[in-house]
Design brief:
197 residues, alpha+beta, Aminopeptidase, binds coenzyme A
Length: 197
């Protein structure tokens, strides 16, 4: 049996490891397949894209990881959208990685942005458990520190999912469906909210 590593605050030094974990976890997600339909190049492109996009969130200090096994990338209230300067800095590299599917990527990004609530919330940007470690409770463990913070501060937690397979998991840890948006020809984005306990 593979031992699960401990959960710690994710620091900038851990970004490459977590990007790899998240890409392996999400490689079969309908949302990611829609943006990166080529099976051969999806994993390396996702890994690089995640490395670029999770780094600004990790700097906010509320993301957690179990090295080599799981990562949960969060933004605290008021930080859901990255600053426009960061978005502009990242855009050329992201567009290059997505290539001809840039419009598909923007459709997913726009659908997610349009569904954001006005109420202050902690935002779960990305969650993943490496396939070798799934089904052992590590997903809940890596979310626990930030969910505890939400409960203590009486704050909402918010996320989007493009994979119906993980809905049972989210319901089990206290999230409920808020609403959903179907992208024509693409995945359905389901928004989940968790009230503090
Ligand atoms: C969803 C996920 C984070 C749950 O973490 P975990 O440590 O595997 O979860 P737990 O052991 O606490 O619970 C298992 C539950 O996770 C869900 N799950 C298990 N494998 C899954 C997979 N490959 N994809 C999606 N959900 C999965 C199921 O609801 C499962 O419940 P069940 O055992 O009653 O069927 C993890 O399975 C994962 O990374 N899946 C792929 C990526 C993903 O969907 N990330 C969330 C993006 S919004």
């Amino acid at each position: 049996m593979i031992r699960c590593p401990p959960v710690d605050v994710l620091t900038p030094a851990g970004v490459p490891d977590s990007a790899g974990v998240l890409a392996r976890a999400l490689v079969d997600d309908p949302g990611w397949i829609y943006v990166f339909p080529d099976d051969r190049t999806r994993l390396p492109r996702m890994t690089r894209l995640l490395e670029l996009t999770i780094a600004p969130y990790v700097d906010m200090g509320v993301s957690y990881a179990a090295a080599g096994a799981a990562a949960a990338i969060w933004a605290p209230p008021g930080k859901h959208d990255l600053p426009i300067t960061t978005q502009l800095r990242l855009f050329p590299r992201l567009a290059w990685l997505v290539g001809r599917r840039v419009r598909a990527g923007l459709r997913v990004f726009s659908a997610m942005s349009a569904g954001t609530p006005e109420e202050p919330h902690h935002y779960l940007s990305v969650l993943g458990v490496d396939p070798a470690h799934q089904g052992k409770g590590l997903g809940a463990a890596v979310l626990a520190p930030t969910l505890a913070r939400c409960d203590d501060a009486r704050e909402l937690a918010w996320l989007e999912s493009t994979n119906p397979k993980n809905h049972t998991f989210y319901r089990r840890i206290g999230f409920e469906v808020a609403h959903a948006t179907a992208i024509p020809g693409g995945p359905t984005v389901t928004f989940f909210a968790r009230r503090p306990r």
